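Go through this chain for my students:
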Amino acid sequence: MKDLMGERDVPGNPHLDEDDMIQFYRQFLSSELRITSLINRASAGGASFSSQLVYRGYMDDKSNTDNAWVDAEIWNFHFNRTDTFDQKIVEGEKRWREVSVLMQLDSSQLHHVLEVAKMHSSKA
């Protein structure tokens, strides 16, 4: 299926549910942790991986107009042990970043990121 901008072919269903999102990020567990995670699926990976939908809805954005606006889902995926994200996703902009008030995000985005950091007792 082509995305709306015609940039590239996008495989699969564009309407993913919460289980699909959790499964996608679960793949970044190291192999031995992934097996444990699948066995302990009810808790989304036990002690090695946790997931939570933090926010779903309207988001302030400079590109919003009267007839078009940004709706977003903000997820918290937390890996308590080694993950393989950086090895599997090698594009420069898609990497784990340290949470800081100096991050270059819109104020509403930064607010949500800092709220999630507080959940993990971060001193951002």
